[in-house]
Amino acid sequence: xxxAICGSLNFTHEIKxxxxxxxxxxxxxxxxxxxxxxxxxxxxxxxxxxxxxxGEFSKRAIKFDSIREYWKIIKEADAILxxxxxxxxxxxxxxxxxxxxxxxxxxxxxxxxxxxxxxEMIYNDEIKAMQPKVINGDLLKIK
Length: 143
Prior knowledge:
CATH architecture: 3-Layer(aba) Sandwich
Distance between the termini: 8 Å
Oligomer: single chain
Number of helices: 7
Shape: globular
Number of strands: 5
Radius of gyration: 14 Å
């Protein structure tokens, strides 16, 4: 099974750990393109955070066409796993980009897994409507 992991770039190191565990379980795994670049040392997470604070991150996303590029990866995957950890004082945060990726997966009839419970956010009804399977951190529940 091919799984595309989605989640905030702030969770890059956690996403890497999850990806490694899934690979050990026999899954083929993709992680966010910018997370791959951070892990390869092409740029740092601190650079990304500064760009987000300054409203400059969109320039990087446009330059690398990262939304479309990850859509292509999701299209080839069997499922997505949203790595939703606490962020911005929100338990189990799902950001705008991950929400978009969930929408892509839903439209493409892909399985959607959430690592943790659905967050209390303005769009949690829309998240519920996509019927994700919450695995509560148990990667063995991905089938």
